[in-house]
Each structure stands twice: as structure tokens, then as C-alpha cells.
Amino acid sequence: MEHEQMAESTNCDTDPCQTRAFYKFFIGHRRATIVSDGPLAPIPPIDEFPSVPEEDMSAVLRRHSLGTDALCFQQNCLVLEVNNQRVLFDTGMGASTFFGESCGRLIDNLELAGISPDEIDVVLLTHAHPDHCFGLVDSSNQPRFKNADVYVSKRDYAFWTSEETATSGEFARFNVSGARAAFEAYGNRVRLIEPEAQPVLGVKAIDSPGHTVGHLCYLIESAGERALFIGDVAYHHAVSFVHPDWHSSFDTNPEDAVLTRTKLLQWAATEKIRLVGYHYPFPGLGYAIQEGKGFRFAQEPMQVSLTIESEI
Ligand SMILES: [Zn+2]
Fold first, then answer.
1. Considering the entire predicted model, what is its pTM?
2. What's the CA gap between 128 and 238, in Å, rounded?
3. CA of 126 to the centre of ligand 1 (A)
4. Residue 276 C-alpha to ligand 1 middle, in angstroms?
5. How far does residue 136's CA lie from ligand 1's centre (Å)?
6. Residue 99 Cα to ligand 1 middle (Å)
7. What would the pLDDT profile of 86-138 be if each residue is shown by its tens digit?
């Protein structure tokens, strides 16, 4: 009975005491820090994946020892040091509580990690959904990263600031209004990019449409190592890997999302590219392993002892 109760729990940790989190590591020679914006509020699987039969979803979650009543999503932003620049990948929910009270911790956690928001030179966005771009601004819509240029895909910018999208539904209206405010705050420091662009030395934008029309992943290369900041291409560490063919209610173009997810996971598995997962269990690092028709996410163990020489 006890075991049964454990299996049915959400396993979602939204306690504020547990969400002040950062994690320092290296990608090749580059210093990197995962900085949490806090988890999204737990969401029932049926709301996230409405086309998936409940028993199929529950079977996948049980196999991973996860609760079946809710899905849990972290927000793992990345700060990468490139020469003298600090590059932030995605920004969390900012002041919005649309996805729960446990979000919005990026600035506090940056400061705990010894990084001032004013030291961020570049922000790279995977896409313009609220949990990735609303954190660009504070509750008064002022820039939180005063010295940063903001890079976003041309297609996503056009889509998530358009009147046509704003009038297509309630969530879309909320998304567009926040995205417009966030981008307006940065004026001409918003840089619109195409896939294959290299906004920062050693960082390339990878075309990955479907979750949103202009979604970009970022491939980071240093000293022979490759890591992929995968954004929301495969955004649940169990469900999206076992079943890349299951699309979610937040995928703008479900068919493209399935194609992109399958293609990128296949690539990452074959090439053994390290993944940096925005919504995966903190800190979100690991590898895709081919398993049958799908994949498995093999989470990298956290390193808790660091040599003094590394100075991090
Ligand atoms: Zn997301």
C-alpha cells in the first residue's frame, strides 16, 4: 500500500526551499552554470498530452517510477562563458505566475551562483513561449538584463508578436502580449536570426520547428565536446523519449514536432551529443540512448566535489 501511494504521488517538488538551485560544470573548456527558474506547477498528463490514452501514459510513467497524476517540469536556464562574454540560454517565467508560484527564481539563483544579471551580455532564446522569454523583463516590463542583446528566431518572433496569433485563442493572446512587452523592452537589441546562425563563437542555432514554428536548439562546441541545448523539442525526460510520436497540447505544429523530435533524438543518440534539457529533472544534463523504436534519457550524475584548480 505504501509503495502504491508512492507510485501515485506527483514526485513534483515545488517547495520554495528546494528550488534555490544552480550547478556549475564544463562544456569542453567553457565554464557553464545551470541556473533554475524553479519548476512549473505540476500538470495532469491529460492536459499536456490530450491525445494519449491514460493507460498508455500511466504505463510509461510507472516504468520510470514517476507519479501518474501529474507531470513535473523544471526550468533549467544555462549560463555559458565564452571568452569574456556571459551567455544566458532562455529566461524562465519572470514575474508571471501563470504556470504557478514556484517559477520566477532565475534572478535570485543567478545571484546565488555569483552572476549579476548586469553581467549577461547575450540572451539566446529557443522560442518565444512564456516559460522561455517572459523572464527577459521584470514586473514593470523593464529589462532584467540591462547589457544584453537578445537573439530569437525570425519566424518565432513574427509568430508570437502577430495580431493573427493573438486572436487565435486565450493562451495565444496571453503569450503574444507578454512576448511583445518583453521584446519591446530591448528595442533594437533584439536580433532576429535564422537557423545555422552562430550568434556566439562556438554556438550554432539548429532548426527545430514544430513545438513552435521557429524553435531553435543551440549546439555548443568546445574542445571536441558537443552539447545541445534542446529547449522544448523533447521536453519530458521520460514521455518524449519513449514516445517521440506523442505530441503535446503546446506543440504549434504537431506533425513537425514529431518529425523534429525523432530526428534530433536520433542524431543526439548516434553522435553521443550531450543534452542540456530545459525541463528535465535538475540540472537536466544527460544523453539520449536508442531503445527499441524510441529512446531513453540517461541522466548524467551530478558532480558534487570539484577540484580547487577548476576555480568554480
Ligand atoms: Zn517550455
1. 0.94
2. 24
3. 9
4. 13
5. 15
6. 11
7. 999 999 999 999 999 899 999 999 999 999 999 999 999 999 999 999 999 99
